[in-house]
């Protein structure tokens, strides 16, 4: 098992004799407690899957570990056991429970957080965010109104049970439960049969939901070209549970049903102005991932060219606008489970993948995520960037079997026409270049993309054979021209316009990539083909004089 956000391995040396390092072990426990919780397997070396076959844990060691960590930490709860591995060797399984309400720390006042497969110290602003976020992580399972589950809305209760029993995402084990057991399983009631906050939201009566602090209110506002309000709907009467709320919003707003008709000869395609799956996923994210300890309405703002969904609260600690495509942190896990089991949203962590896929495959821009002082805003655009790219994407999706990751990468390359591997990796929010293989290898192997250059200069382009074979009227661009041909164009340009800056050359070859021009000019200077004068921004270039 690989080390991850909830699992780590430690050598037995960390808890024995002179090599023992309980302060380090305590920092790891604090980091797990402040995140999702996790497991420490003590007695398994890095790079190994099992402990040594002859390894035995001395009597009382597990108790000593717990005592030392308790002495060095605050708000860290542990459970420990000795486990015998399949090879006969023993190791210590140390379970760290997530700290649901208070922030965990060392006794020296140090705060840590588990981020991926590493533990890092929290910065002051991150610590403040974590302190504010902690109550939100336990909000859904708290009992605020002390309502017995028998006093819930019976129609909503029956529909919930019926929907769960009809879902193919729910196991037979859950479907066989009675009403009370099913509510307990989904954390909608506590041990005393009282409705939790999640239970009130889902099966409560309107008057019960209205008494619930921070019950979601959604406002839809439409603007004209001059950003004047022309239409407004507000869902603030607490009649609907989250599932009904989603459906009523979708059915009430007519603008989402509009489409863009794209045609060229016999080829025609109707592209929704706003894809239903994208809209529903945005609304699900707004409802499921918001902190329910933060006051504020959810706003849906529709402009002629875009839609903005604004949610109160900030992104969970560890998630940023630059890693939201790859990073997953559950703020309301039980809420999310209900949504997933009822097919209301994608699996945790795949919602943005779906939005990227749908938007890029329709020839549109990827969603833009912006984090303000106390809100998160996601923008999706209505406009199709290039109809020819849409035809290309449509052709490929109809004739090739591609994964969601393949379609995302293809949409990016088609929009950019040419993109460096480093830029593509950045766009995909990847930290390790190796992980990009799952996005592009299949496309290259099928001849949909070609590569050009090496290492950091490696670039991806749409295969010219694919374009010519599919008979698209794709615009010719210098962005995809081969380096030796671009070199000839630069030479001809400087023959006609000696002593030019790189910006001047680019202005006369606007379709070319300025980075390619700059790289080529520097190489031609190094090869003695060009001469330069001046310095910095005033640097000019001309053809070298023949000797």
Please tell me about this protein's structure.
- By secondary structure, the protein is of the alpha+beta class.
- 37% of the residues lie in helices and 19% in strands.
- The chain has 20 helices and 21 strands.
- The chain has a 6-stranded mixed beta sheet, with helices on one face. Strands 1-2-5-4 form a 4-stranded mixed beta sheet.
- A hairpin with a 6-residue loop joins strand 18 and strand 19.
- The termini are far apart.
- The model has no long low-confidence stretch (mean pLDDT 88).
Give the SSE layout.
Elements: E1 7-10, H1 22-34, E2 38-42, H2 61-72, E3 73-74, E4 78-84, E5 90-96, E6 105-106, E7 112-115, E8 118-121, H3 124-137, H4 154-166, H5 172-175, H6 179-185, H7 197-203, H8 206-211, E9 218-223, E10 229-235, H9 242-252, E11 259-264, E12 267-272, H10 276-288, E13 298-302, E14 306-312, H11 333-341, H12 351-361, E15 368-371, E16 375-381, H13 387-399, H14 404-416, E17 418-420, H15 421-427, H16 437-445, E18 449-452, E19 459-462, H17 464-470, H18 483-496, H19 502-508, H20 514-526, E20 530-533, E21 540-543
Parallel strand pairs: 1-2, 9-13
Antiparallel strand pairs: 2-5, 3-6, 4-5, 7-8, 9-10, 11-12, 13-14, 14-16, 15-16, 17-19, 18-19, 20-21
Total DSSP helices: 20
Q: How confident overall, as mean pLDDT?
A: 88
Helix content: 25-40%
Uncertain stretches of 5 or more adjacent residues: none
Number of strands: 21
Straight-line distance between termini? 66 Å
Structural class label: alpha+beta
Summarize this, please?
This protein is of the alpha+beta class and 547 residues long. It contains 20 helices and 21 strands. A six-stranded mixed β-sheet has the order 10-9-13-14-16-15, covered by helices on one side. The chain has a four-stranded mixed β-sheet with strand order 1-2-5-4.
